[in-house]
Amino acid sequence: MAEKEINITYETLFDLLRREKNRAELQKLSDTFFEDVDIYIKEKHAILKDQQMKIGMSAIAEKEKTSKQIENINNMLKGLLERRQQKIIDMAIVKSRTLSDTTDYFALLKEEQEMFNELVELLNRSKKKLLLHLITKPEFIEPKYEENESKELETTEEAGSISKTEETKPKIKEAEETEKTRLIRFIYSVPKFLGHHLDVYGPFEEDDTANLPEKIADILIKKGRAEEIKK
């Protein structure tokens, strides 16, 4: 069986690091990159071990050169992996925020794909846990709502499953963009609340208008908080 050709050299590592530093996108690497690097480093250590058995001034110079090369290789690999990891973290944050499947992840290596998936899962789980914790705090309960009205907004899953939450402006994620919406005008001020996709809406003031998912709009209209604007 022919010996596998390894395309990793000192120069290619330097070039890969330079490209990863200078470009915003995650750079495509060989599918066998980690395996190739492992073989390359082992070869360098084998050369150093052989040089250590030799004597003479030239042998000392060669040993120092190889040792320095190995040190530089380790530093380049560390820099390359750290920059790739930061880009993968940023990609995971975007994925968690948008729930979008449109991003191209072709540059992820198999080992990095596993890391990416775990990060997205962790971010989604942490976000949901934090939001659920926040909406149970007393300071997030709006006194203007009657008790039964608040409960319906918080627990009626079939009607939109909306509740009040953190201090942010209205956000509608891509996951909800395909839902039917209804344009409404607010008759009374309404505090911030969550939609059934954990999207934050509000706060809204009197006479504010908003194009909200139909189920959420129906609840607000039914409770007399808003009225529909006929298009």
Q: How would you characterize this protein structure?
A:
Helices cover about 50% and strands about 10% of the residues. With about 230 residues, the protein is mainly alpha-helical. The protein has two domains: about 10-130, Methane Monooxygenase Hydroxylase, Chain G, domain 1, CATH 1.20.58; about 145-230, 3-Layer(aba) Sandwich (Ribosomal Protein L9, domain 1). Helix 1 packs parallel to helix 3 (about 55-100) and helix 3 packs across helix 4. The longest helix is centred in the middle third of the chain and has 42 residues, at about 55-100. The protein starts with 9 loop residues before the first helix and ends with a strand.
List low-confidence stretches.
138-177
Q: How are the strands ordered across the major sheet?
A: 4-1-5
DSSP helix fraction: 40-55%
The proportion of residues in beta strands is: 5-15%
CATH T-level fold name of the largest domain: Methane Monooxygenase Hydroxylase, Chain G, domain 1
Instruction: Tell me the number of strands.
Output: 5
Structural class: mainly alpha
CATH class of the largest domain: Mainly Alpha
Q: What is the rounded Rg?
A: 29 Å
- Per DSSP, the total helix count is 6
Element order: H for helix, E for strand: HHHHHEEEEHE
Quickly give the CATH architecture of the largest domain.
Up-down Bundle
Q: Name the average pLDDT.
A: 79
Provide the domain count: 2
How far apart are the first and last residues' alpha carbons, in Å? 73 Å
Shape: rod-shaped
Largest sheet: 3 strands, antiparallel
